[in-house]
Amino acid sequence: MSEKMLAVIKRERAPGAELVEVDIPNIKSDEVLVKVKATSICGTDAHIYNWDEWAQSRIKPPMIFGHECAGEVVEVGNLVKRTRTGDFISAETHIPCGHCFQCLTGQQHICQNLRILGVDINGCFAEYVSIPEVCAWKNDTTLPAEIASVQEPFGNATYTVMESQVPAKIIAIMGDGPIACFAVGIAKAVGAAKIFAVGEFPYRVKLLKTMGADVTLSILTNDPVKEIMEATSYQGVDVVLEMAGAQKAIDDGFTILKKGGTFTAFGIPSSKIEFDLSNNVVFKGAKIIGINGRLMFKTWFELNNLLKYKKVDISPVITHKMPLKDFHKGMEAVISKRKEVGKVVLFPEAK
C-alpha cells in the first residue's frame, strides 16, 4: 500500500481548502484504518470551508475535515476486538471518552469530553481515515457506498423523529435541508398521521414532497402559520421538528404548536435568538427535546432496520455524486444561494 494519499486540507485560518497529498494515517492500538469508498458533504463542512465565526472558534488548521463516510477496513490496531479487515463500515462521528458520567450512563453521544471526526481530529475527505473502533458501524456489504456514507445524517433524522413519538400525530417539520428531507421519509414510515413540511427554496421544497410530506409550504410563497393553523382548526400540530435553526422557523414552530405539544430542536442557530419562554413554553405546557447526534447505538439499529426493510428510500435526497478531486464543485453546490442541491457524495476512487 502506498504511504501517501489525497486529502482535502484546511491548511490555514481562511476561507477555502486544498486537495493535497499527505501521509496515510498511522493507527493507534484501538483504531481501525478505513479505505474511504464514499464521503458526503455536511453543513458543518460548509461552515469550515467558508471559515465562518463558528469555524474560527472551533477548527484548528492544518487539518483534514469531513466526517460522513463509509469504507473498507484495511488495518486494525492490536486492541481492536470486533472489527476485522475487509469489514464495510460507516463512521459514527461522535467519539466518546468512555469514562465520564454521560458515557457510563448510556449517553455516549453527549459525552462530556466529546470529540468529533473532521472537527476535533482529522476527518474523512481523504482516501483513508483512522477512527476508533467504537465508532465503526459494520454494514451489510450489499449496501451502496453512497447510502452507507449518509447514514450519519440519516441517523440525526432518525433520532429526531423517534424521540418525538410521532405515530398517529399531526406534525410539522421546519426546514428543507437534507436531514429535514430524511425526517419526512422516516416520519411517514413510522406512522405520522399528517406531515406539514415548511421550507424556503423551491428545489428543496420539492424534495420534501418527494420524501412524502402531505403538505409542503414555502416561506417565500406561503404563510405557513396561517395555513397550518387553518388546516388544524386552529388547534395547531402535536409535534414540531425544528431542523432549520432560524429565528423565524423557531418562532413559527412554537406558534403552530398545540398546547401540551412537543417541540424537538435539532437546528442550530448561527447566533443567539430571542425567545418568549412564558408564552412558548410555560403557558403552552410545551415539552422541549434537544437532539445532538445519534443514540449510540440504538439509533443505528433503528436506521439499519428502516433501510434494510426498505421503509424509507433516501436516494432522492442524494442529488450530486462526483470524484473527491472535484470537492470544490461539491462545496459550491452546497453553499449556493439557490440551494438546488440535496446531499453531495464524493468518491475518492473515482477519476
Q: Could you estimate the helical fraction of the residues in percent? A: 25-40%
Q: In what range is the share of β-strand residues?
A: 25-35%
Uncertain spans? none
Through-space gap between termini:
19 Å
Q: In sequence order, what are the helices and strands, one letter per element?
A: EEEHHEEEEHEEEHHEHEHEHEHEHEHEHE
Shape by Cα distribution: globular
- Structural class comes to alpha/beta
Q: Supply the CATH superfamily name of the largest domain.
A: Medium-chain alcohol dehydrogenases, catalytic domain
Question: How many helical stretches?
Answer: 12
What does the radius of gyration come to?
A: 20 Å
* CATH topology-level name of the largest domain: Quinone Oxidoreductase, Chain A, domain 1
Q: In the CATH classification, which architecture of the largest domain applies?
A: Alpha-Beta Complex
What is the CATH class designation of the largest domain? Alpha Beta
Mean pLDDT over the full residue set:
97
Largest sheet: 7 strands, mixed
Number of domains: 2
The total beta strand count reads: 18
